[in-house]
Amino acid sequence: MRKDVRILLVGEPKVGKTSLIMSLVSEEFPTVVPYRAEEITIPADVTPERVPTHIVDYSDAEQTDEQLFQEISKANVICIVYSVNNKTSIEKVTSYWIPLILDNTDKDSRVPLILVGNKSDLVEHSSMDTILPIMNQYSEIETCVECSAKNLKNISELFYYAQKAVLHPTGPLYCPEKKDMKPLCIKALTRIFKVSDLDNDGILNDSELNFFQRTCFNMPLEPQALEDVKNVVRKNLSDGVCDNGLTLKGFLFLHTLFIQRGRHETTWTVLRTFGYDDDLELNQDYLFPPLKVPPNCTTELNHTAYLFLQSVFDKHDKDRDCALSPEELRDLFDVFPYMPWGPDVNNTVCTNEQGWITYQGYLSQWTLTTYLDVQRCLEYLGYLGYSIIAEQESQATGITVTRDKKIDLQKKQTQRGVFRCNVFGDVGSGKSGFLQAFLGRNLMHQQIVKEEHKSYYAISTTFVYGQEKYLLLHEVFPDLDYLSDADLACDIICLVYDVSNPYSFDYCAKVFKQHFVDCKIPCMMIAAKSDLPETKQLYGCSPLEFCRKHKMPPPQSFTCNTAGAPDRDIYTKLSTMAMYPFSSSLFFPSILFTFFISLLYFSSLPLSLPLSFLSFIAS
Question: Which residues pair with 468 in a beta bridge?
């Protein structure tokens, strides 16, 4: 909503423009009227809408045409004043003033007009019969007010309507010619209905209507008031009420009724509560609330956000199969202006046998978006109405910004729930298969994926000592000369080589020595395609010797050419190393005991857990 309102009064000489302004300010008719009143500002605290209002007078005796054009271009609303007892001043409304205003305003930004019939105290009849055809001819005209500066009739109402025309304009909402709401308004209200339909049954029941009422107007509806609203809809629309709840058609009908009866502010209050601006676009401040993410920190969804996303999943999983079919997914994203997830998502997260995104895959994709592009996540949560439904100040309250990773290393513990593993390997080494195996797909189920549908990410959950954590695998492009900061910034490095290709390990060794030999990021070597005959690697030393030399765990054998789902132990090991990076040298007995004691101290875990970790090291 606008932060202030600028009202301009124009019209023929002697129609009473200046008198109207002075009568409003002094609350009495002025005995001496100047040619033109100075611009006045009405403070926010004395206006009904709590918005500062500037009132500007025009006088052809004191101002040039150029000055008039400038004032027209600056005005938010223009009052065309005529005298009800002066036929010429009425004729000039259409023959001169409206064309002049339209010629000097931006065609794309419609300026609302108010017709003001002054001096009603001098006649016994109304001018409305003459004015109504004019109002029907020009959609820019919001309303007509007959008033009298002399006896103060409708003076405050005049300026209230002018203010209302700016703050709650009819133009974006309603088409007078068609007597119906405009498409953008229907689209916005349809999204609001879908967001408010918490069980996604296509109707707003009494509980949902009351929640909607409290959200928008800070008060519930009394039971009788609810019935009265539904009865009005029933009377006018056969399918406006179903199962004693308000349908989308009924919801839209009510707002059409509000607008037709001049209660635009009701519809605007609803629209603005749900984030819309005056152009019926979602406000950027609503979609992208401030969120500061310092360097070396990551972003994760918190418990409140996960609960909200779970409720969104549940209300769209109509067949209760814990997966979203393409139709259910389209229905979920119907409140978005575009489809946010492309075909690559099916190769990024877990799906069922039909290729539908599972509940776990759904939450994983949200976790991935939050980690990689938190601004996009804020936008998506905004479309879903997170701040409204979860009753939070903004989407930013659903995000946890983790502390600096350096502090985690110093304190030897972390509260992070998402760990990033960058996967390096030469072309054909088996990186893609390694990512897909994490999603439970063996070689037979790893379909040939079109290049445009290929995903370089895979994310799912693992358990580290009973704690559920997300592991994010990122397949890095193999060109060593073009590694970005994002390629190097992670929690653990995974170096994949093909045991059957004698030249495959050379790439891993070069990556490690060029980028990671002196860093504190733990690294793991993966001996992929271990089902194939192992070939001696053509490098200065064997992979096992290389790992010992650089104090890395021994190469871990891996294959996705299995009868069932590939083994997940290796991903648990990666998650554990990422969660305890300070203990990466644990693979050497000299400090094993120290780690054992520190793990008990820092994590307060049961004794059995560190012992299980010993078996992990031994493997």
Answer: 463
Burial (0-12, 13-18, 19+ Cβ within 10 Å), 185? buried
Phi–psi pair at 393, nearest 5 degrees: -65, -40
Burial of 607 (0-12, 13-18, 19+ CB in 10 A): exposed
As given in the structure block, the two tokens for residue 417 are 């729930």
Q: What angle do CA 435, 438, 440 make, to 5 degrees?
A: 120
Strands 357-358 and 323-324, by their bridges, are antiparallel
3-state secondary structure 419-468: EEEEEEECCCCCHHHHHHHHCCCCHHHCCCCCHHHCCCEEEEEEEECCEE
Rounded (10°) angle between helices 359-372 and 303-316: 140
Token pair in block for residue 223: 């039971």
- The alpha carbon of 342 is separated from its chain's Cα centroid by a whole number of angstroms, namely 18
> Helix, strand, coil % (nearest 5) of the chain?
45, 15, 40
> Mean pLDDT, consecutive 10-residue segments, the chain of 619 residues?
89 94 91 89 82 93 91 94 95 95 82 94 90 88 93 92 89 86 96 97 96 93 92 94 96 94 92 94 96 94 98 96 96 96 94 94 98 98 97 97 89 90 94 95 77 86 94 87 77 96 96 88 95 94 95 94 90 93 50 40 41 41
Question: Cα(421)–Cα(262) distance, rounded to whole angstroms?
Answer: 59
CA distance 155 to 166: 18
Residues in the chain: 619
Q: How far apart are CA 479 and CA 492, in angstroms?
A: 19
Give the whole-angstrom CA distance, residue 93 versus residue 235.
Answer: 40
Q: At what angle do helices 264-273 and 183-196 cross, to 10 degrees?
A: 60
Q: At 497, is the secondary structure helix, strand, or coil? A: strand
Task: Encode pLDDT of 572-583 as tens digits.
Answer: 999 999 998 766
Q: Which amino acid is at 351?
A: T
DSSP 390: T
For the entire predicted model, the pTM comes to 0.85
Phi and psi at 206, nearest 5°, equal -60, -40
Q: What is the DSSP letter of 202?
A: S
Which amino acid would we find at residue 102?
L
- Of the chain, the end-to-end C-alpha distance in Å amounts to 63
Residues 173 and 177: their CA atoms lie apart, in Å, by: 13
Residue 179 is classified by DSSP as T
CA 266 – CA 277 distance, rounded (Å):
15
**Strand 357-358 to strand 53-56: parallel, antiparallel, or no bridges (unpaired)?**
unpaired
Mean pLDDT over each residue of the chain, to the nearest integer: 89
Distance from C-alpha of 378 to C-alpha of 286, rounded to nearest angstrom: 9
> Are 525 and 561 contacting, i.e. CB atoms less than 8 angstroms apart?
no
Cα–Cα separations (whole angstroms), residue 412 to 22, 490, 575, 593, 619 = 73, 17, 15, 16, 24
Which residues sit opposite 8 in a β-bridge?
56, 78
Torsion of CA 330, 336, 341, 342, to 10 degrees: 80
Residue showing tokens 């000489």: 13
DSSP structure string for 282-319 = B-HHHHS------TT--EEE-HHHHHHHHHHHHHH-TT
Classify 181 as helix, strand or coil: strand
User: What single-letter DSSP state applies at residue 11?
Assistant: E
